[in-house]
UniProtKB/TrEMBL annotation:
Complex formation: Monomer.
InterPro entries, alphabetized: aa-tRNA-synth_I_CS (IPR001412), Gln-tRNA-synth (IPR004514), Gln/Glu-tRNA_Ligase (IPR050132), Gln_tRNA_ligase_bac (IPR022861), Glu/Gln-tRNA-synth (IPR000924), Glu/Gln-tRNA-synth_Ib_cat-dom (IPR020058), Glu/Gln-tRNA-synth_Ib_codon-bd (IPR020059), Glu_tRNA_lig_a-bdl (IPR020061)
Occurrences of domain Glutamyl/glutaminyl-tRNA synthetase class Ib catalytic (ranges): 29-338
Residue ranges annotated for the Glutamyl/glutaminyl-tRNA synthetase class Ib anti-codon binding domain, each copy included: 341-440
Reaction catalysis annotation: tRNA(Gln) + L-glutamine + ATP = L-glutaminyl-tRNA(Gln) + AMP + diphosphate
Residues given in the record as L-glutamine binding sites: D68, Y213
Top-level EC class as recorded in UniProt: ligase
Protein location: Cytoplasm
Native organism: Halopseudomonas oceani
Locus of motif 'KMSKS' region: 269-273
Molecular-function GO term, any one: glutamine-tRNA ligase activity
Residues spanned by motif 'HIGH' region: 35-45
Name of the molecule in the record: Glutamine--tRNA ligase
Pfam family, one: tRNA-synt_1c
Length: 555
């Protein structure tokens, strides 16, 4: 097989795949992405998706999507649907139909019986507490279960009765008979089957015994003809067990497992348990809350598949654990949106401006490019006597270097005229509620004669702008490592109280009335935003901030 046309940065897994193809060990590549359907995918999964599907694509192979659905008590169809959506959104397509480990339950059960007949598996009745005691630890060997020497006939009978539903959950397990003194704890008679009287989303009530992940994984790979079983480093110690099962069962193929370092991103948590806790305890508004680290959350926040793929490529694939700075991911989305997002103007904190020397009832249609470097058309911006500017763009006593409106000062309105602040109208409490300004009619598209105007501010017309809600999202945690805090604290204590600011009564330029769900824009001078995919409606637009224009966390 030829090398892929593109020449992406090399890493050890690309080298392994290329060498296997060059040597003839494999004529085609089959990888797999095997999520457990017990939660939503997070940014760490994106690295695995891009790696497994990406390698298959580069080398002309296929990648299977297989749900490792061995624990029905924690699995839901909602998670299955969300995972499929995430994979497709990232730009990948699995080979053939979606697969499930449960598709192989009959074969796995038959192989368990073969292990029993070969004297390599037994039914154990130790309680979980006893099993932990018998297992030993990293410095002390385990000891054999008192049930380890049951006869083949008794084990077959006990396993058949387990399968028939005669025993309660947790009463018995089927274990492999390997070596209780093995230095690798995973080889100390691991569990093959547990009793779980639970309805399964694929097999219904057919089973009340379910295989363990370790027993299921390698055999599923073998059944599917996986050539490169790629997983994260925490499974490295499981590889001898993976191979023991393949060596001791009549499997149709012998896949090889390879491990890489998982993605650890600062200012986030990616533990499914902790993500679920955030949702269940309502610290966030669901799995797709734009502050979460789930792919559905990044999608709702306005991140693009291209930016996430670029991020995964940029951080590389190694066997060394490390922590990636969130700024790298934010750089990737800024870079993508800077090049591709249309420009628009939205005033987050509106202050009314009346241009006193502009004729009442007159409207002038100004045409502004939708992008400064791409030819993607124009948008029309009506200019009229009353407009809105941002409240922070006028100060009576400004700091040094302030280049916006001041009493008697001038600024240019983006794509429009130069205006001068003549008078500020205040309410009974002294708050500024309106500015009275004049405009220079000779400054459309050119500088005023004899004076230099330094500042440029954004604006929208008062009558035709659309009222909208803007949600300013920031990082959910204010600690780089949310799990590390003072003694007695948890990751919840590091939640950033300013991670969401909701602004109502914002005013957006009229062209945004045609925006559709998930459309992305650069709001000039404010950041990158997208139409919220859940709460936005044509008559009540909601925009989510994807990322600021610049890194506000850099030190």
């Amino acid at each position: 097989m030829n090398k892929p046309d593109a020449t992406p940065p090399s890493h050890f897994l690309r080298q392994i795949v290329q060498a296997d193809l060059d040597s003839g060990k494999h004529s085609n590549i089959v990888t797999r992405f095997p999520p457990e359907p017990n939660g939503y995918l997070h940014i760490g999964h994106a690295k695995s998706i891009c790696l497994n599907f990406g390698l298959a694509r580069e080398f002309g192979g296929v990648c299977h999507l297989r749900f490792d659905d061995t624990n029905p008590a924690k699995e839901e169809q909602e998670y299955i649907d969300a995972i499929k959506t995430d994979v497709e959104w990232l730009g990948f397509q699995w080979g053939g139909d979606v697969r499930y480990a449960s598709d192989y339950f009959d074969q796995l059960h038959a192989w368990a019986i073969e292990l029993i007949k070969a004297g390599k598996a037994y039914v154990c009745e130790l309680t979980p507490e006893q099993a932990r005691e018998y297992r030993g630890n990293l410095t002390e060997p385990g000891k054999n279960s008192p049930f380890r020497e049951r006869s083949v006939e008794e084990n077959l009978d006990q396993f058949q009765r387990m399968t028939a539903g005669e025993f309660a959950d947790g009463a018995k397990v089927l274990r492999a008979k390997i070596d209780m003194a093995a230095p690798n704890m995973n080889l100390r008679d691991p569990i093959l089957y547990r009793i779980r009287h639970a309805h399964h989303h694929q097999t219904g009530d057919k089973w009340c015994v379910y295989p363990s992940y370790d027993f299921t994984h390698g055999q599923s790979d073998a059944i599917e003809g996986i050539t490169h079983s790629i997983c994260t480093l925490e499974f490295e110690d499981h590889r001898p067990l993976y191979e023991w099962f393949l060596d001791n069962l009549p499997v149709p193929a012998h896949p090889r497992q390879y491990e890489f370092a998982r993605l650890n991103l600062n200012y986030t948590v990616t533990s499914k348990r902790k993500l679920k806790q955030l949702v269940d305890e309502k610290h966030v508004d669901g799995w797709d809350d734009p502050r979460m680290s789930t792919l559905s959350a990044f999608r709702r926040r306005g991140y693009t598949p291209a930016a996430i793929r670029e991020f995964c490529e940029r951080i590389g694939v190694t066997r060394s654990d490390g922590v990636v700075d969130m700024g790298v991911l934010e750089f990737c989305i800024r870079d993508d949106l800077d090049a591709n997002a249309p420009r628009a103007m939205c005033v987050l904190k509106p202050l009314k401006v009346t241009i006193t020397n502009y004729p009442e009832g007159q409207t002038e249609e100004l045409r502004l490019p939708r992008h400064p470097k791409q030819d993607i058309g124009e948008r029309v911006l009506p200019f009229e006597r009353e407009i809105y500017i941002d409240r922070e763009d006028y100060m009576v006593d400004p700091p040094k270097g302030y280049k916006r409106l001041v009493p008697g000062g001038e600024v240019r309105l983006r794509g429009s005229y130069v205006i001068r602040a003549d008078e500020a109208v205040t309410d009974a409490d002294g708050n500024i509620v309106e500015l009275l300004c004049t405009y220079d009619p000779d400054t459309l598209g050119k500088n005023p004669e004899g004076r230099k105007v330094k500042g440029v501010i954004h604006w929208v017309p008062a009558s035709s702008s659309i009222e909208c809600e803007v949600r300013l999202y920031d990082r959910l945690f204010n600690a780089a490592n949310p799990d590390k805090g003072e003694e007695g604290t948890t990751f919840l204590d590091n939640i950033n109280p300013d991670s969401l600011q909701v602004l109502t009564g914002c005013r957006a330029e009229p062209s945004l009335a045609d925006a559709t769900l998930d459309d992305r824009f650069q709001f000039e001078r404010e950041g990158y935003f997208c139409v919220d995919s859940r709460d936005s409606r044509p008559d009540a637009m909601v925009f989510n901030r994807t990322v600021t224009l610049r890194d506000s966390w850099g030190g």
